From TrEMBL:
GO molecular function terms listed in the Swiss-Prot or TrEMBL record: isochorismate synthase activity
Keyword Transport listed: no
Enzyme class: isomerase
Protein name, per record: isochorismate synthase
EC number from the UniProt entry: 5.4.4.2
Coiled-coil stretches: none
Domain of life: Archaea
NCBIfam families for this protein: isochor_syn (TIGR00543)
Keywords: Isomerase
Family named by the database record: Belongs to the isochorismate synthase family.
Record's catalysed reaction(s): chorismate = isochorismate
InterPro entries xrefs: ADC_synthase, Chorismate_C, IsoChor_synthase
Chorismate-utilising enzyme C-terminal domain location: 177-429
């Protein structure tokens, strides 16, 4: 189905929902037809989507405004009969750069694309809500199809996720020598004063021994990273974008905004003592605190025009299976109702993945990185008819396609960054995904 553009005449979305006994999440995902989406966050219901009732695409500087306007018009006219938890949502995301070119492996990922799944499954305790959405359909035929879908989902049984496929080849897009040159050049610019921070990334192409099962990979990531946002964006054909990110960009419910600053990284220790020592070192590190402070400050500044009040919590350590980060929780109260996409637009990219000043950092990223960031490090998430929604920063992620996976990882550079230490940090940040590929 062709995506809608902003200037198109809007069709009517018709949705109906039914409550069923919750099937196993990954089995439900495997039973869905492409395009597929999945979203799991620690403090939100898991949602799995399959098929496409409608898709909205846009590019250029106003891409999110155009998506928001089209979606708002669609929702205003929609016929939905069900509880709030089951209401249809748009899922998707955007490319890091607004004028993304969609170079390989990003050919199926435009500058911004959001989909209302034809079949949406929202997990709610022991139950799940199936919502079926069609364009210009009649409610009666939906009821029959919902019954069939319920039977299908309720008949699914738990399976053990398959083991990782194994890795037979690797190709780095950046050599250690090229990395040294890039980091040295960026650090010189920072020391000269025309840049305060820039995040440079690398990509790693991995050849797999067997075709990857995306639902199994997401299941394994759930075991290793239970408190991360796991996401899947899988267009109708081609590659899938998948990840388990610790970084929330923003979530909005009513006037409540939740976000946070995540920047500054170290490894995990082999013993409890070493782990604690590494955490203490990170908390005391001038370099990492400076890197972190720039992010927290920028988020606060970008939120300020929308908010009545902003609360910045205490800086602490966020421990993940492979790394630990400096983390500051930030929450806020909106002055008036705002669509989550407006706040996403204001926040992206934070200096946790871009840099400061943003325009100069963008130039350095474009001039330096020999690959297309595509949707890596960009917002991915969902929004509903009320403009509520939740977005994560798509790091600790990869594009996977049969026997090929492309992993991305980046690091924040400031005046006293060391190229070798930053190289090691990139390798550490590949681990969450690489561990699910290597056998
Ligand atoms: C850019 C990435 O991570 C970001 C950069 C961090 C850092 O430089 O310390 C830490 C967390 C993230 O905000 C990545 O994982 O690819």
């Amino acid at each position: 189905m062709e995506p809608l553009r902003t200037d198109e005449i809007v069709t009517q979305l018709v949705s109906r929902s039914v409550r069923i006994a919750a099937p196993p999440v990954e089995a439900a995902l495997a039973a869905m037809k492409r395009p597929r989406t999945m979203w799991t966050a620690d403090d939100e219901p898991t949602v799995v989507g399959g098929g496409e009732a409608v898709a909205v695409e846009a590019d250029g500087p106003a891409r999110l405004t155009r998506v928001r306007e089209t979606a708002t018009a669609l929702f205003a006219d929609a016929d939905f009969d069900g509880p709030e938890v089951a209401q249809p949502r748009f899922f998707g995301g955007l490319a890091f750069h607004e004028d993304a070119t969609g170079r390989d492996p990003w050919t199926d990922f435009p500058a911004a694309r959001f989909v209302v799944p034809e079949v949406q499954l929202v997990f709610d305790g022991d139950d799940a809500w199936v919502t079926l959405t069609v364009r210009d359909g009649d409610a009666e035929s939906l009821a029959d199809r919902l019954e069939d879908l319920s039977e299908t989902f309720e008949s699914l049984t738990e399976t053990t996720p398959a083991d990782p496929p194994g890795v037979v080849g690797r190709h780095r897009t950046t050599s250690l020598e090229a990395w040294h040159e890039s980091v040295d050049a960026a650090v010189s610019r920072i020391r000269a004063g025309d840049l305060r921070k820039v995040v440079l990334a690398q990509a790693l192409e991995v050849e797999l021994e067997a075709a990857i099962s995306v639902p199994d990979m997401l299941a394994r990531l759930g075991t290793a990273y239970p408190d991360c946002h796991r996401f899947l964006v899988e267009p109708e054909t081609g590659a899938s974008f998948v990840g388990a990110t610790p970084e929330r960009l923003v979530s909005i419910r009513g006037k409540t905004v939740e976000t946070g600053a995540l920047a500054g990284t170290t490894g995990r220790g082999d013993t409890d003592d070493e782990d604690e020592w590494l955490a203490e070192e990170l908390l005391a590190s001038t370099k990492d605190n400076h890197e972190h402070e720039l992010v927290a400050e920028a988020i606060r500044e970008q939120l300020d025009p929308f908010c009545e009040s902003i609360r910045v919590g205490e800086r602490g350590i966020r421990k993940l299976a492979t790394v630990q980060h400096l983390w500051t929780p930030i929450d806020a109260t909106l002055e008036q109702d705002e669509h989550v996409l407006s706040v996403v637009e204001a926040l992206h990219p934070t200096p946790a993945v871009g840099g400061l000043p943003p325009a100069e950092a963008f130039d350095v990223i474009r001039d330096t990185e020999p690959f297309d960031r595509g949707w890596y490090a960009a917002p991915v998430g969902w929004f509903d008819a009320d403009g509520n929604g939740s977005f994560a920063v798509a790091i600790r992620s990869a594009v996977v396609n049969e026997t090929l996976a492309t992993l991305f990882a980046g690091v924040g550079l400031v005046a006293d960054s060391d190229p070798d230490a930053e190289w090691d940090e990139v390798q550490l940040k590949y681990r969450p995904i690489l561990d699910e590929l290597e056998d």
